[in-house]
Amino acid sequence: MRLMKSVVVSAVALAALSGCALTTEHVQLQYAPQAVVAPLAGAGSISVSVQVVDQRQDKKIGSKKNGFGMEMAPILAADDVSGTVRQALERELRARGFQLADAAAVVSIAADLTRFYNDFKMGVFAGDAVADLNLSITVKSRQGQLLYSRHLAAQGVETNIQLATGNNARIALNRALENGMKSLFEDRNFIAALLAAA
After folding, report:
1. What DSSP letter does each residue of the chain carry, written as one string?
2. DSSP state letter for 45
3. What is the mean pLDDT of the chain?
4. How far lies 168's CA from each of 89, 113, 127, in Å?
Protein backbone atom coordinates (compact mmCIF):
# COMPACT_ATOMS: atom_id res chain seq x y z
CA MET A 1 0.00 0.00 0.00
CA ARG A 2 2.80 2.39 0.92
CA LEU A 3 4.62 1.57 -2.32
CA MET A 4 1.51 2.36 -4.36
CA LYS A 5 1.04 5.66 -2.52
CA SER A 6 4.69 6.63 -3.16
CA VAL A 7 4.33 5.82 -6.85
CA VAL A 8 1.20 7.97 -7.13
CA VAL A 9 2.80 10.91 -5.29
CA SER A 10 5.92 10.66 -7.47
CA ALA A 11 3.82 10.54 -10.64
CA VAL A 12 1.85 13.63 -9.63
CA ALA A 13 5.04 15.53 -8.74
CA LEU A 14 6.68 14.54 -12.02
CA ALA A 15 3.64 15.66 -13.98
CA ALA A 16 3.62 19.01 -12.20
CA LEU A 17 7.32 19.58 -12.87
CA SER A 18 6.99 18.52 -16.48
CA GLY A 19 4.15 20.98 -16.96
CA CYS A 20 6.36 23.81 -15.72
CA ALA A 21 9.25 22.63 -17.87
CA LEU A 22 7.08 22.80 -20.98
CA THR A 23 6.00 26.42 -20.46
CA THR A 24 8.01 29.31 -21.91
CA GLU A 25 9.25 31.56 -19.13
CA HIS A 26 10.01 35.31 -19.31
CA VAL A 27 12.44 36.66 -16.71
CA GLN A 28 13.25 40.21 -15.66
CA LEU A 29 17.00 40.83 -15.76
CA GLN A 30 18.37 43.39 -13.31
CA TYR A 31 21.81 44.94 -13.17
CA ALA A 32 23.28 45.74 -9.74
CA PRO A 33 25.84 48.55 -10.17
CA GLN A 34 29.25 48.39 -8.54
CA ALA A 35 29.40 49.79 -5.02
CA VAL A 36 31.62 52.61 -3.80
CA VAL A 37 32.69 54.07 -7.15
CA ALA A 38 34.22 57.56 -7.15
CA PRO A 39 34.12 60.03 -10.05
CA LEU A 40 37.34 60.14 -12.08
CA ALA A 41 39.35 63.32 -12.50
CA GLY A 42 38.53 64.89 -15.86
CA ALA A 43 35.56 62.62 -16.57
CA GLY A 44 33.05 65.44 -16.06
CA SER A 45 34.19 67.18 -19.24
CA ILE A 46 33.84 64.08 -21.42
CA SER A 47 30.57 63.14 -23.09
CA VAL A 48 30.09 59.50 -24.09
CA SER A 49 27.57 57.81 -26.37
CA VAL A 50 26.79 54.12 -25.91
CA GLN A 51 25.41 51.78 -28.54
CA VAL A 52 24.80 48.06 -28.03
CA VAL A 53 23.80 45.85 -30.96
CA ASP A 54 22.36 42.40 -30.35
CA GLN A 55 24.20 40.11 -32.77
CA ARG A 56 22.94 36.83 -31.25
CA GLN A 57 21.41 34.42 -33.73
CA ASP A 58 19.21 32.85 -31.04
CA LYS A 59 17.40 35.36 -28.84
CA LYS A 60 16.77 32.86 -26.04
CA ILE A 61 18.72 33.40 -22.82
CA GLY A 62 18.39 29.75 -21.81
CA SER A 63 16.23 26.65 -21.81
CA LYS A 64 14.62 24.78 -18.97
CA LYS A 65 15.77 21.21 -18.46
CA ASN A 66 14.09 18.15 -17.04
CA GLY A 67 15.63 15.77 -14.51
CA PHE A 68 17.40 13.88 -17.30
CA GLY A 69 19.18 17.03 -18.58
CA MET A 70 17.01 17.31 -21.71
CA GLU A 71 16.24 20.84 -22.92
CA MET A 72 12.59 21.77 -22.58
CA ALA A 73 10.84 25.17 -22.89
CA PRO A 74 12.80 28.34 -23.73
CA ILE A 75 13.69 31.05 -21.24
CA LEU A 76 13.34 34.58 -22.65
CA ALA A 77 14.19 38.04 -21.33
CA ALA A 78 11.18 40.17 -20.47
CA ASP A 79 13.01 43.27 -21.77
CA ASP A 80 15.35 43.94 -24.67
CA VAL A 81 18.72 42.37 -23.76
CA SER A 82 20.78 44.95 -25.66
CA GLY A 83 18.97 47.68 -23.71
CA THR A 84 19.82 45.97 -20.42
CA VAL A 85 23.52 45.82 -21.37
CA ARG A 86 23.49 49.45 -22.55
CA GLN A 87 21.92 50.60 -19.27
CA ALA A 88 24.60 48.70 -17.32
CA LEU A 89 27.35 50.48 -19.28
CA GLU A 90 25.69 53.86 -18.83
CA ARG A 91 25.21 53.41 -15.08
CA GLU A 92 28.90 52.62 -14.60
CA LEU A 93 29.94 55.57 -16.79
CA ARG A 94 27.72 57.98 -14.83
CA ALA A 95 29.06 56.65 -11.53
CA ARG A 96 32.57 57.59 -12.67
CA GLY A 97 31.51 61.11 -13.64
CA PHE A 98 31.22 60.79 -17.42
CA GLN A 99 28.41 62.65 -19.19
CA LEU A 100 26.07 60.75 -21.49
CA ALA A 101 25.23 62.15 -24.92
CA ASP A 102 24.28 61.00 -28.40
CA ALA A 103 25.34 62.72 -31.61
CA ALA A 104 27.46 65.40 -29.93
CA ALA A 105 29.48 62.96 -27.80
CA VAL A 106 33.26 63.38 -27.64
CA VAL A 107 33.78 59.62 -27.51
CA SER A 108 31.61 56.65 -28.49
CA ILE A 109 31.38 53.12 -27.13
CA ALA A 110 30.06 50.45 -29.49
CA ALA A 111 29.35 46.97 -28.16
CA ASP A 112 28.27 43.92 -30.16
CA LEU A 113 26.52 41.34 -28.00
CA THR A 114 27.36 37.89 -29.39
CA ARG A 115 26.35 35.66 -26.47
CA PHE A 116 24.22 36.01 -23.35
CA TYR A 117 23.03 32.55 -22.41
CA ASN A 118 22.55 30.34 -19.38
CA ASP A 119 23.13 26.60 -19.49
CA PHE A 120 22.14 24.26 -16.70
CA LYS A 121 24.75 21.70 -15.66
CA MET A 122 22.89 18.80 -14.10
CA GLY A 123 24.43 16.74 -11.29
CA VAL A 124 23.30 13.71 -9.31
CA PHE A 125 21.81 15.59 -6.34
CA ALA A 126 22.01 19.21 -7.52
CA GLY A 127 23.04 21.26 -10.50
CA ASP A 128 24.50 24.62 -11.44
CA ALA A 129 23.23 27.49 -13.59
CA VAL A 130 26.18 28.74 -15.66
CA ALA A 131 25.70 31.92 -17.72
CA ASP A 132 28.06 33.35 -20.35
CA LEU A 133 28.36 36.93 -21.60
CA ASN A 134 30.37 37.77 -24.74
CA LEU A 135 30.79 41.36 -25.94
CA SER A 136 33.01 42.93 -28.59
CA ILE A 137 33.72 46.50 -27.50
CA THR A 138 35.30 49.43 -29.32
CA VAL A 139 35.91 53.00 -28.21
CA LYS A 140 36.30 55.70 -30.86
CA SER A 141 36.90 59.44 -30.81
CA ARG A 142 34.49 61.85 -32.45
CA GLN A 143 36.80 61.87 -35.48
CA GLY A 144 36.53 58.08 -35.78
CA GLN A 145 39.96 57.20 -34.38
CA LEU A 146 40.02 53.76 -32.72
CA LEU A 147 41.08 54.23 -29.10
CA TYR A 148 40.27 50.81 -27.65
CA SER A 149 39.14 47.37 -28.77
CA ARG A 150 38.43 44.24 -26.76
CA HIS A 151 36.53 40.98 -26.80
CA LEU A 152 35.01 40.63 -23.34
CA ALA A 153 33.97 37.25 -21.93
CA ALA A 154 32.44 36.86 -18.47
CA GLN A 155 30.59 34.17 -16.56
CA GLY A 156 28.05 34.03 -13.76
CA VAL A 157 27.17 30.95 -11.71
CA GLU A 158 24.37 29.95 -9.32
CA THR A 159 25.43 26.71 -7.63
CA ASN A 160 23.57 23.83 -5.99
CA ILE A 161 20.22 24.39 -7.65
CA GLN A 162 17.38 21.88 -7.58
CA LEU A 163 15.32 23.20 -10.49
CA ALA A 164 16.47 24.24 -13.97
CA THR A 165 14.04 27.17 -14.20
CA GLY A 166 14.00 30.79 -15.27
CA ASN A 167 14.65 32.17 -11.79
CA ASN A 168 17.96 30.32 -11.41
CA ALA A 169 18.93 31.29 -14.96
CA ARG A 170 18.14 34.95 -14.13
CA ILE A 171 20.46 34.92 -11.11
CA ALA A 172 23.36 33.48 -13.14
CA LEU A 173 22.78 35.89 -16.05
CA ASN A 174 22.68 38.91 -13.74
CA ARG A 175 25.99 37.80 -12.24
CA ALA A 176 27.53 37.34 -15.67
CA LEU A 177 26.59 40.91 -16.61
CA GLU A 178 27.89 42.24 -13.30
CA ASN A 179 31.18 40.35 -13.69
CA GLY A 180 31.50 41.61 -17.27
CA MET A 181 31.06 45.24 -16.24
CA LYS A 182 33.51 44.77 -13.37
CA SER A 183 36.13 43.35 -15.73
CA LEU A 184 35.63 46.14 -18.27
CA PHE A 185 35.73 49.06 -15.85
CA GLU A 186 38.74 47.62 -14.03
CA ASP A 187 40.61 47.61 -17.37
CA ARG A 188 42.96 50.61 -17.19
CA ASN A 189 43.25 50.72 -20.97
CA PHE A 190 39.48 51.14 -21.31
CA ILE A 191 39.37 54.00 -18.81
CA ALA A 192 42.47 55.58 -20.37
CA ALA A 193 40.82 55.47 -23.81
CA LEU A 194 37.78 57.33 -22.47
CA LEU A 195 39.87 59.95 -20.70
CA ALA A 196 42.13 60.39 -23.74
CA ALA A 197 39.16 61.83 -25.62
CA ALA A 198 39.54 65.04 -23.61
Report:
1. -HHHHHHHHHHHHHHHHHHHHTS-EEE-----PPSS-PPPTTGGG-EEEEEEEE--SS--SEEEE-TTS-EEEEEEESS-HHHHHHHHHHHHHHHTTPEE-STT-SEEEEEEEEEEEEEEE--SS-EEEEEEEEEEEEEEETT--EEEEEEEEEEEEEEEES--SHHHHHHHHHHHHHHHHHHHHT-HHHHHHHHHT-
2. G
3. 90
4. 24, 22, 10
Closest by Cα among 51, 75, 80, 76 to 65: 75
pLDDT at position 110, please?
Answer: 97
Q: How far is CA 69 from the centre of its chain?
A: 23
Over residues 121-148, the mean pLDDT reads 94
3-class secondary structure, 51: strand
> What is the value of pTM for the model shown?
0.87
pLDDT digits (tens, 9 = 90+) for 24-81: 999 999 999 999 999 999 999 999 999 999 999 999 999 999 878 899 999 999 999 9
Its CATH class, for the domain covering 2-32+40-196, is alpha beta
Identify which of 163, 131, 154, 155 has the alpha carbon closest to the alpha carbon of residue 60.
Answer: 131
pLDDT beyond 50 at 19 = no
